[in-house]
Amino acid sequence: xxxxxxxxxxxxxxxxxxxxxxxxxxxxxxxxxxxxxxxxxxxxxxxxxxxxxxxxxxxxxxxxxxxxxxxxxxxxxxxxxxxxxxxxxxxxxxxxxxxxxxxxxxxxxxxxxxxxxxxxxxxxxxxxxxxxxxxxxxxxxxxxxxxxxxxxxxxxxxxxxxxxxxxxxxxxxxxxxxxxxxxxxxxxxxxxxxxxxxxxxxxxxxxxxxxxxxxxxxxxxxxxxxxxxxxxxxxxxxx
Length: 239
Prior knowledge:
- By secondary structure, this protein is α+β, with helices and mostly antiparallel strands.
- The chain is built from 4 helices and 14 strands.
- The strands form 4 sheets. It has a 6-stranded mixed beta sheet with strand order 10-1-14-13-12-11. It has a 4-stranded antiparallel beta sheet with strand order 6-5-7-8, with no helix packed on it.
- It is globular and about 55 Å long.
Protein backbone atom coordinates (compact mmCIF):
# COMPACT_ATOMS: atom_id res chain seq x y z
CA UNK A 1 0.00 0.00 0.00
CA UNK A 2 1.28 3.45 -0.92
CA UNK A 3 1.12 5.68 2.16
CA UNK A 4 2.51 8.69 0.32
CA UNK A 5 -0.83 9.97 -1.04
CA UNK A 6 -2.69 9.96 2.32
CA UNK A 7 0.25 11.65 4.01
CA UNK A 8 0.41 14.36 1.33
CA UNK A 9 -3.33 14.91 1.56
CA UNK A 10 -3.07 15.26 5.32
CA UNK A 11 -0.27 17.81 5.00
CA UNK A 12 -2.23 19.80 2.42
CA UNK A 13 -5.41 19.82 4.52
CA UNK A 14 -3.58 20.86 7.67
CA UNK A 15 -1.84 23.60 5.73
CA UNK A 16 -5.15 24.89 4.35
CA UNK A 17 -6.76 24.95 7.78
CA UNK A 18 -3.76 26.72 9.30
CA UNK A 19 -3.85 29.37 6.56
CA UNK A 20 -7.58 29.93 7.01
CA UNK A 21 -7.15 30.24 10.77
CA UNK A 22 -4.29 32.69 10.29
CA UNK A 23 -6.40 34.84 7.94
CA UNK A 24 -9.32 34.64 10.37
CA UNK A 25 -7.11 35.83 13.21
CA UNK A 26 -5.43 38.50 11.11
CA UNK A 27 -8.66 40.22 10.06
CA UNK A 28 -9.84 40.36 13.67
CA UNK A 29 -6.50 41.84 14.73
CA UNK A 30 -6.69 44.50 12.02
CA UNK A 31 -10.20 45.51 13.12
CA UNK A 32 -9.20 45.61 16.79
CA UNK A 33 -6.08 47.63 16.00
CA UNK A 34 -8.15 50.10 13.99
CA UNK A 35 -10.42 50.83 16.96
CA UNK A 36 -7.43 51.14 19.28
CA UNK A 37 -5.71 53.58 16.92
CA UNK A 38 -8.87 55.68 16.65
CA UNK A 39 -8.73 56.32 20.40
CA UNK A 40 -5.11 57.51 20.42
CA UNK A 41 -4.50 60.39 18.03
CA UNK A 42 -5.35 61.67 14.53
CA UNK A 43 -1.87 60.68 13.38
CA UNK A 44 -2.23 57.13 14.69
CA UNK A 45 -5.61 56.65 13.03
CA UNK A 46 -4.50 58.18 9.72
CA UNK A 47 -1.43 55.93 9.59
CA UNK A 48 -3.56 52.86 10.32
CA UNK A 49 -6.09 53.77 7.64
CA UNK A 50 -3.32 54.35 5.09
CA UNK A 51 -1.94 50.89 5.80
CA UNK A 52 -5.08 48.80 6.19
CA UNK A 53 -7.79 50.41 4.05
CA UNK A 54 -8.21 49.79 0.33
CA UNK A 55 -7.64 52.82 -1.90
CA UNK A 56 -11.30 52.66 -2.96
CA UNK A 57 -12.49 51.98 0.59
CA UNK A 58 -15.33 54.03 2.06
CA UNK A 59 -16.62 55.07 5.47
CA UNK A 60 -20.32 54.82 6.27
CA UNK A 61 -20.94 57.22 9.18
CA UNK A 62 -24.07 57.52 11.28
CA UNK A 63 -27.13 58.96 9.58
CA UNK A 64 -28.47 62.24 10.90
CA UNK A 65 -31.00 64.95 10.10
CA UNK A 66 -29.33 68.14 8.97
CA UNK A 67 -27.89 69.92 5.95
CA UNK A 68 -24.70 68.12 4.95
CA UNK A 69 -21.79 70.42 5.66
CA UNK A 70 -19.12 70.78 8.32
CA UNK A 71 -17.28 73.68 9.91
CA UNK A 72 -13.53 74.17 10.16
CA UNK A 73 -12.71 72.66 13.60
CA UNK A 74 -9.54 74.74 13.85
CA UNK A 75 -11.45 78.05 13.78
CA UNK A 76 -12.77 78.94 17.24
CA UNK A 77 -13.73 82.49 16.28
CA UNK A 78 -15.87 82.06 13.18
CA UNK A 79 -18.14 79.40 11.72
CA UNK A 80 -16.58 78.78 8.31
CA UNK A 81 -17.72 75.95 6.06
CA UNK A 82 -14.83 73.62 5.31
CA UNK A 83 -16.71 70.87 3.48
CA UNK A 84 -20.04 70.43 1.71
CA UNK A 85 -21.23 66.87 1.12
CA UNK A 86 -22.39 66.21 -2.46
CA UNK A 87 -26.00 65.19 -2.86
CA UNK A 88 -27.18 66.83 0.38
CA UNK A 89 -29.47 69.88 0.89
CA UNK A 90 -26.46 72.09 1.57
CA UNK A 91 -24.82 71.20 -1.75
CA UNK A 92 -27.30 73.36 -3.67
CA UNK A 93 -26.65 76.43 -1.53
CA UNK A 94 -23.29 76.41 0.28
CA UNK A 95 -19.66 76.35 -0.79
CA UNK A 96 -16.47 75.69 1.11
CA UNK A 97 -15.21 78.99 2.50
CA UNK A 98 -18.66 80.41 3.26
CA UNK A 99 -18.82 82.10 6.66
CA UNK A 100 -22.07 82.03 8.63
CA UNK A 101 -23.10 85.44 9.97
CA UNK A 102 -26.38 84.40 11.59
CA UNK A 103 -28.79 81.47 11.66
CA UNK A 104 -32.50 82.21 12.15
CA UNK A 105 -31.50 85.58 13.63
CA UNK A 106 -28.95 84.17 16.10
CA UNK A 107 -25.37 85.42 15.60
CA UNK A 108 -23.22 82.55 14.31
CA UNK A 109 -20.47 82.75 16.92
CA UNK A 110 -18.53 79.93 18.49
CA UNK A 111 -20.23 80.62 21.82
CA UNK A 112 -23.67 80.27 20.17
CA UNK A 113 -22.87 77.04 18.30
CA UNK A 114 -25.23 74.98 20.48
CA UNK A 115 -28.11 77.42 19.92
CA UNK A 116 -28.03 77.43 16.14
CA UNK A 117 -30.93 75.59 14.49
CA UNK A 118 -28.96 73.19 12.35
CA UNK A 119 -30.54 70.11 13.89
CA UNK A 120 -34.26 69.45 14.03
CA UNK A 121 -37.18 68.01 12.08
CA UNK A 122 -36.50 66.98 8.46
CA UNK A 123 -38.15 69.10 5.80
CA UNK A 124 -38.11 72.31 7.85
CA UNK A 125 -36.45 75.30 6.18
CA UNK A 126 -33.87 77.29 8.10
CA UNK A 127 -32.95 80.82 7.00
CA UNK A 128 -29.45 82.16 7.51
CA UNK A 129 -27.07 84.89 6.44
CA UNK A 130 -23.65 83.96 5.09
CA UNK A 131 -20.66 85.87 3.80
CA UNK A 132 -19.09 84.78 0.52
CA UNK A 133 -16.23 86.60 -1.20
CA UNK A 134 -16.70 89.56 1.14
CA UNK A 135 -20.43 89.93 0.43
CA UNK A 136 -23.30 88.96 2.71
CA UNK A 137 -26.25 87.02 1.30
CA UNK A 138 -29.41 85.40 2.63
CA UNK A 139 -29.94 81.67 2.14
CA UNK A 140 -32.59 79.10 3.04
CA UNK A 141 -31.95 75.38 3.40
CA UNK A 142 -34.38 72.60 4.28
CA UNK A 143 -33.09 69.86 6.57
CA UNK A 144 -32.89 66.36 5.19
CA UNK A 145 -31.68 62.89 6.12
CA UNK A 146 -27.92 62.75 5.60
CA UNK A 147 -26.79 59.24 4.69
CA UNK A 148 -23.62 59.29 2.64
CA UNK A 149 -20.41 57.35 2.11
CA UNK A 150 -17.06 59.10 2.51
CA UNK A 151 -14.07 58.02 0.41
CA UNK A 152 -10.78 57.15 2.07
CA UNK A 153 -8.99 60.22 0.69
CA UNK A 154 -11.63 62.62 1.99
CA UNK A 155 -11.71 60.98 5.41
CA UNK A 156 -7.95 61.35 5.71
CA UNK A 157 -8.28 65.07 4.90
CA UNK A 158 -10.92 65.44 7.61
CA UNK A 159 -8.73 63.63 10.16
CA UNK A 160 -5.80 65.90 9.31
CA UNK A 161 -7.88 68.92 10.37
CA UNK A 162 -8.69 67.49 13.81
CA UNK A 163 -7.21 68.93 17.00
CA UNK A 164 -4.69 66.40 18.42
CA UNK A 165 -5.03 67.87 21.92
CA UNK A 166 -8.75 67.08 22.01
CA UNK A 167 -8.58 63.59 20.50
CA UNK A 168 -7.24 60.94 22.87
CA UNK A 169 -9.92 59.44 25.13
CA UNK A 170 -9.53 58.72 28.83
CA UNK A 171 -9.97 54.97 28.36
CA UNK A 172 -11.02 52.38 25.79
CA UNK A 173 -12.41 48.91 26.41
CA UNK A 174 -13.01 46.43 23.59
CA UNK A 175 -15.57 43.93 24.82
CA UNK A 176 -16.14 41.78 21.74
CA UNK A 177 -14.64 41.06 18.32
CA UNK A 178 -16.75 38.77 16.12
CA UNK A 179 -16.03 37.59 12.60
CA UNK A 180 -18.32 36.12 9.96
CA UNK A 181 -16.58 35.53 6.67
CA UNK A 182 -14.92 38.73 5.49
CA UNK A 183 -16.85 40.89 7.98
CA UNK A 184 -15.65 41.71 11.49
CA UNK A 185 -17.68 43.46 14.18
CA UNK A 186 -15.99 45.28 17.07
CA UNK A 187 -17.97 46.32 20.15
CA UNK A 188 -16.22 48.88 22.33
CA UNK A 189 -16.79 51.50 25.01
CA UNK A 190 -14.86 54.70 25.66
CA UNK A 191 -14.80 56.93 28.72
CA UNK A 192 -13.89 60.55 28.08
CA UNK A 193 -14.30 64.10 29.36
CA UNK A 194 -15.82 67.03 27.48
CA UNK A 195 -13.06 69.60 27.04
CA UNK A 196 -15.21 72.72 27.50
CA UNK A 197 -17.11 71.67 30.64
CA UNK A 198 -15.03 68.92 32.21
CA UNK A 199 -18.09 66.65 32.29
CA UNK A 200 -17.30 62.91 32.02
CA UNK A 201 -19.24 60.59 29.73
CA UNK A 202 -19.17 57.05 28.35
CA UNK A 203 -20.12 55.86 24.88
CA UNK A 204 -20.52 52.41 23.38
CA UNK A 205 -20.10 51.80 19.68
CA UNK A 206 -20.29 49.00 17.14
CA UNK A 207 -18.01 49.10 14.12
CA UNK A 208 -18.44 46.84 11.12
CA UNK A 209 -15.37 46.15 8.96
CA UNK A 210 -15.85 44.57 5.55
CA UNK A 211 -12.62 43.28 4.03
CA UNK A 212 -11.81 42.69 0.36
CA UNK A 213 -9.95 39.67 -1.03
CA UNK A 214 -6.59 41.35 -0.33
CA UNK A 215 -7.36 41.69 3.39
CA UNK A 216 -7.91 45.45 3.16
CA UNK A 217 -10.88 47.27 4.69
CA UNK A 218 -13.38 48.03 1.92
CA UNK A 219 -16.15 49.49 4.12
CA UNK A 220 -16.15 50.79 7.66
CA UNK A 221 -19.55 51.36 9.28
CA UNK A 222 -20.07 52.71 12.78
CA UNK A 223 -23.02 53.10 15.14
CA UNK A 224 -22.60 55.17 18.32
CA UNK A 225 -24.68 56.30 21.30
CA UNK A 226 -24.75 59.94 20.24
CA UNK A 227 -28.04 60.74 21.98
CA UNK A 228 -26.89 59.13 25.22
CA UNK A 229 -23.68 61.17 25.18
CA UNK A 230 -25.65 64.40 24.84
CA UNK A 231 -27.87 63.43 27.78
CA UNK A 232 -24.80 62.77 29.96
CA UNK A 233 -23.47 66.24 29.08
CA UNK A 234 -26.73 67.90 30.10
CA UNK A 235 -28.23 68.56 26.67
CA UNK A 236 -31.90 68.03 25.92
CA UNK A 237 -33.61 67.28 22.64
CA UNK A 238 -36.83 69.20 22.16
CA UNK A 239 -39.33 69.50 19.35
